[in-house]
């Protein structure tokens, strides 16, 4: 133990000697500057420590909380001040759908949730972006499928007519050979009849194979053509849905207050997709264009177009919406007739809003609003 102590003392003495030599190796001016710097650092450290000590010693102020008046006026009873925009709080899915469906320049869409904009954006983006990616994937897969089916049709459809011609020729040959076999057999012609029988068997075999091949080919070509036609029809529909979602996503990235509030409501309510589809088209519509739509619908479904509201109605007036240049059609956009209507409006470039569910106070049920979005009536 004493040996260890002696070695430590020697090491410490050597360290002091080296530091001293190093210190005195500097010029007097440098030694003065270094001493000043170290003194300044010691003073700063001491000052910071003193401030922290004083802050810890200060008592925590007691804030008096006054009781909140429970007699709160219902929001429905509060009238907006003239000249100011009304604030609409999105706290339900129905309100979010209504805010998405209608144009209202006199209202400001907000949310009162105790959550930061960044968190709302994160949740909304995590809900919306996968839908955009999934639609992109579906559109890409459908286009690949259409190209593949088209190649198959180009390669195999032209074979149907030649195969039919071959079958017709084999049927004639078979009929001629069968007729020859029906002739009386002579003793000297037994070998001739045997040859005809062998040839007849060969023709019958080839004919049966050709018929089987034609049947399979026609079935596959027909199913391929139906699939290609359905996919070609679905692609523009999905592209419009994709455009709708992409526009919403871009507004979300711009922190649009309305889109942020409504999308966050959808994301937290368990809805898997947007409850409505809004299509602007070429932005032009008037009620006079409805007659052509009525005729096309009746030609297709042999019944009148179920128009539930033509122009301004008492219901829309009570709800406070300008519906003077729009028509409501009572068809669910997910049904066969509703899909036909949506596709017709898309093809014609007619603006519409397809409601997939009811919106209390705004929409009595699923329907297709034909025309530009309604605006709030000026009273």
Structural description of this entry:
With 379 residues, the chain is of the alpha+beta class. Helix content is 61%, strand content 8%. The strands form 3 sheets. Strands 3-7-8-6-4 form a 5-stranded antiparallel β-sheet, with helices on both faces. Helix 3 packs antiparallel against helix 7, helix 4 packs antiparallel against helix 6 (190-253) and helix 4 packs across helix 7 (257-269).
Key structural traits:
379 residues, alpha+beta, two-stranded parallel sheet, flat
Average pLDDT level:
79
Number of helices: 10
- Overall 3D form: flat
Second CATH tier, the architecture of the largest domain: Orthogonal Bundle
Query: What is the succession of H and E elements?
Result: HHEHEHHHHEHEHEEHEEE
The main pleated sheet reads as: 5 strands, antiparallel
- The low-confidence parts are 55-83
Find the count of extended strands (DSSP E, 2+ residues): 9
CATH class division of the largest domain: Mainly Alpha
Helix content: 55-70%
The spatial strand order of the largest sheet comes to: 3-7-8-6-4
Instruction: Give the number of domains.
Output: 3
Indicate the proportion of strand residues: 5-15%
Query: Pairing-aware structural class of the strands and helices?
Result: alpha+beta
CATH fold-level name of the largest domain: Helix Hairpins
| N- and C-termini, Cα separation | 100 Å
């Amino acid at each position: 133990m004493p040996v260890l102590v002696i070695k430590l003392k020697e090491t410490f003495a050597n360290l002091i000697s080296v530091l001293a030599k190093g210190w005195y190796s500097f010029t007097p001016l440098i030694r003065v500057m270094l001493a000043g710097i170290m003194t300044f650092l010691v003073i700063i450290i001491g000052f910071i420590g003193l401030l922290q000590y004083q802050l810890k010693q200060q008592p925590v102020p007691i804030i008096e909380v006054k009781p909140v008046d429970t007699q709160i006026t219902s929001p429905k009873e509060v009238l907006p001040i003239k000249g100011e925009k009304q604030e609409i709080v999105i706290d339900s899915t129905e309100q979010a759908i209504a805010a998405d469906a209608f144009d209202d320049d006199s209202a400001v869409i907000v949310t009162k949730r105790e959550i930061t904009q960044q968190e709302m954006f994160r949740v909304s983006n995590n809900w919306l972006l996968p839908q955009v990616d999934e639609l992109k994937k579906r559109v890409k897969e459908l286009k690949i499928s259409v190209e593949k089916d088209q190649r198959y049709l180009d390669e195999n459809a032209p074979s149907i007519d030649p195969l039919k011609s071959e079958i017709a020729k084999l049927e004639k040959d078979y009929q001629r050979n069968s007729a020859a076999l029906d002739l009386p057999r002579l003793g000297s012609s037994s070998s001739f009849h045997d040859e005809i029988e062998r040839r007849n068997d060969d023709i019958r075999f080839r004919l049966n194979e050709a018929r089987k091949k034609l049947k399979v080919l026609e079935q596959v070509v027909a199913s391929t053509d139906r699939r290609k036609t359905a996919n070609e029809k679905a692609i523009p529909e999905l592209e419009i849905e994709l455009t709708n979602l992409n526009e919403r996503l871009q507004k979300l990235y711009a922190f649009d207050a309305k889109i942020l509030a409504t999308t966050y409501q959808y994301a937290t309510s368990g809805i898997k997709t947007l409850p409505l589809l809004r299509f602007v088209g070429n932005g032009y519509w008037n009620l006079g264009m409805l007659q052509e739509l009525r005729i096309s619908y009746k030609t297709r479904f042999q019944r009148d177009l179920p128009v539930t509201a033509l122009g301004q109605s008492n219901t829309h007036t009570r709800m406070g919406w300008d519906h003077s240049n729009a028509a409501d059609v009572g068809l669910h956009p997910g049904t066969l007739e509703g899909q036909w209507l949506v596709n017709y409006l898309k093809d014609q470039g007619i603006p519409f809003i397809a409601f997939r569910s009811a919106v209390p106070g705004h929409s009595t049920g699923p329907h297709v609003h034909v025309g530009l979005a309604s605006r709030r009536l000026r009273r």
